[in-house]
């Protein structure tokens, strides 16, 4: 039985990291080689199940990721963080790795449009690892500078404990994911 959580297509990494590009390309080739050699291939979403079929797997299904939503829904927030995030700015939240397929640069472009045409009182919060593809993260930060937007309106937290995550979700006005490829952001 194969449980497939996905291998991001290599082209997302080409401009930023040759090593990850190579690994992603090899990973997707290796998945194809397993077609016909498994009794069952399970994707953790229908998107991934369909991808398995495109790779040549015939007996497929979906086995979803188990997520304990109650840990976020009923957990205790951080009052100090909540006070900081409840300062009147519109909070746009993204939770996930800061990697090319998540299209964080589109979040920055959205912020520019929001600032220009809607309101200047905004903040974009990015909760998740920033060290997966350092050149990409640096390019995203450079885009903020290119648009001459205040850096304090773009918060990249890195990984956070559940109590902080709870607070980020509770204080968000908008949750946004512009991922180009299977945007779980689990």
Overview of this structure, please?
It is a single chain. With 186 residues, the protein is α/β, with parallel strands linked by helices. It contains 7 helices and 7 strands; from the N terminus they run E-H-E-H-E-H-H-E-H-E-H-E-H-E. The strands form 2 sheets. It has a 4-stranded parallel β-sheet with strand order 6-5-4-7, with helices on both faces. The protein has a 3-stranded parallel β-sheet with strand order 1-2-3, covered by helices on one side. Helix 4 packs parallel to helix 7 and helix 5 packs parallel to helix 6. The longest helix is centred in the N-terminal third of the chain and has 17 residues. The chain is globular, with a radius of gyration of 19 Å. It starts with a strand and ends in an 11-residue tail after the last strand. The mean pLDDT is 94.
Question: What is the overall shape?
Answer: globular
Low-confidence stretches: none
Distance between the first and last residues' Cα: 23 Å
Strand count, sense and closure of the main sheet? 4 strands, parallel
Q: How would you spell out the order of helices and strands?
A: EHEHEHHEHEHEHE
The strands making up the biggest β-sheet line up spatially as 6-5-4-7
* Structural class designation: alpha/beta
The number of helices is 7
Q: What is the overall pLDDT average? A: 94
Radius of gyration: 19 Å
What percentage of residues falls in helices of 4 or more residues?
25-40%
């Amino acid at each position: 039985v194969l449980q497939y959580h996905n291998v991001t297509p290599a082209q997302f990494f080409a401009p930023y990291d040759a090593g990850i590009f190579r690994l992603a390309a090899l990973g997707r080739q290796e998945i194809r080689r397993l077609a016909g050699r498994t009794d069952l291939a399970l994707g953790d979403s229908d998107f991934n199940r369909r991808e398995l079929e495109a790779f040549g797997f015939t007996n497929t299904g979906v086995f979803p990721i188990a997520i304990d939503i109650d840990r976020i829904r009923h957990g205790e927030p951080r009052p100090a963080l909540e006070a900081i995030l409840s300062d009147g700015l519109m909070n746009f939240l993204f939770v996930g790795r800061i990697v090319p397929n998540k299209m964080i640069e589109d979040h920055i472009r959205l912020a520019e449009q929001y600032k220009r045409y809607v309101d200047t009182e905004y903040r974009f919060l990015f909760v998740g690892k920033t060290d997966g593809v350092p050149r990409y993260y640096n390019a995203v930060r450079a885009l903020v500078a290119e648009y001459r937007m205040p850096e304090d309106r773009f918060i990249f937290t890195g990984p956070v404990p559940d109590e902080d995550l709870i607070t980020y979700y509770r204080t968000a006005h908008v949750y946004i994911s512009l991922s180009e490829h299977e945007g779980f952001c689990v």
